[in-house]
Specification:
An eight-stranded mixed beta sheet has the order 4-3-5-1-6-7-2-8, with helices on both faces. About 50% of the residues are buried. It is globular and about 50 Å long. It has a single domain, classed as Alkaline Phosphatase, subunit A (3-Layer(aba) Sandwich). Helices cover about 40% and strands about 15% of the residues. It contains 14 helices and eight strands. It has helices spanning about 1-20, 40-50, 55-60, 85-95, 100-105, 120-130, 140-150, 175-195, 205-210, 225-245, 275-280, 290-295, 305-315, 325-330, and strands spanning about 30-35, 65-70, 135-140, 160-165, 200-205, 255-260, 280-285, 300. It binds zinc ion. Zinc ion binds near residues 38, 87, 90 and 264.
Length: about 325
């Protein structure tokens, strides 16, 4: 009898850990966070306008969907939070919820990074919910090697799935679109065969096209058809991820927050400065409890993403965490 009880208890505990539907640590709430590197806001708007990003368009127009172009990168001008609009600081801000004055990442060398003290948000999630299932897919290796691994305490892994692909720098990242397909397929397998609570999927080709790395005729511009084509490719990957999410057997019981954004814009073939084209970015979001009015009407820093994720999952940041609890509450004053 005791054995049977123990068996039932073990079953119910393991089912609660990271099962489908409502059988997770967050009563069915889950997060799909998609990152599109170096994707200018006016270019994504142009792609949508021209029918080249039908998946994003459909998500924005769906129930609970929105796009804001009042999202910004680069911290606050003339303040300690001011940071270059490059990938290292940008992704660190998106994944930790703090700016350079705290995370310390100045460039893509990550020298001086303080992600031990201001860690990747999935480490925080695992601290309060050790049975949560966190997955990350990226074809820009520093996302994992520097930001995620750098956040580990005593090298203890907090990612249940961590899949990295490395584009060939010697070949000018010409294989980046293929690596994006690899990342998409790995993420699709996870959505179809596992029960992720929180998932981050990164696509790199839009930035590489902007830099002219893959095709020298391309640039960071809404007038560059090659750049818009790259956005269109990633849009189709996004569509496949959304279809796999909606096709999950217990999707009706699940409550997904979808967040899609970029780390910075660009101009010509580069980025890093303080121009509007580099600082002004975008957020496409879909979910039951997103602070819609605030996002649509007020400038919102890219550091606001992590608090939105905590809020959706019902995680109250502990004292000593950063972002602090107060920052989470300010995400929507009417519904703290
Ligand atoms: Zn970037």
């Amino acid at each position: 009898m005791k054995l049977i009880l123990l068996f039932i208890l073990t079953l119910s505990l393991s089912a609660r850990a990271h099962g489908p539907g409502k059988n997770n640590d967050f009563a069915g709430r889950r997060v799909l966070f998609i990152g599109v590197d170096g994707c200018r806001a006016d270019a994504v708007a142009a792609a949508i306008e021209r029918g080249m990003a039908p998946q994003l368009k459909a998500l924005i127009e769906s129930d609970g969907g929105l796009m804001t172009r009042k999202f910004y990168a680069g911290g606050e001008l003339n303040a300690p939070t001011h940071q270059p609009t490059v990938s290292g600081p940008g992704w660190t801000s998106l994944l930790t919820g703090v700016w350079i004055n705290k995370h310390g990442v100045k460039d893509n060398s990550f020298l001086g990074a303080r992600v031990q003290a201001y860690p990747h948000f999935m480490r925080r999630i695992k601290e309060v919910n050790p049975t949560a299932w966190c997955a990350s897919f990226a074809d820009w290796p520093p996302i994992h090697v520097k930001i995620a691994d750098g956040s580990r305490v005593n090298e203890i892994e907090f990612l249940d799935e961590k899949i990295t692909a490395t584009p060939d720098a010697k070949r000018h990242y010409i294989d980046n679109p293929e690596k994006d397909i690899e990342m998409r397929d790995e993420a699709l397998t996870s959505l179809r065969t596992r029960n992720p609570d929180v998932m981050f999927v990164y696509f790199g080709q839009v930035d590489e096209f902007g830099h002219g790395a893959i095709d020298s005729r391309a640039s960071f511009s809404p007038d560059s058809m090659l750049y818009l084509n790259a956005i269109s490719h990633v849009d189709s990957h996004i569509g496949e991820l959304l279809r796999a999410m909606r096709a999950r057997p217990k999707f009706a019981e699940e409550d997904w927050l979808v967040l899609i954004t970029t780390d910075h814009g660009g101009r010509g073939n580069s980025h890093g400065g303080d121009s509007d084209e580099e600082r002004n970015i975008w957020l496409v979001a879909s979910g039951r409890d997103i602070p819609r009015e605030k996002l649509l009407s007020e400038p919102t820093p890219q550091t606001a993403l992590v608090p939105m994720i905590y809020r959706h999952l019902g995680i109250t940041p502990k004292a000593g965490w950063d972002p602090q609890p107060a920052e989470v509450k300010s995400a929507d004053p009417k519904n703290p």
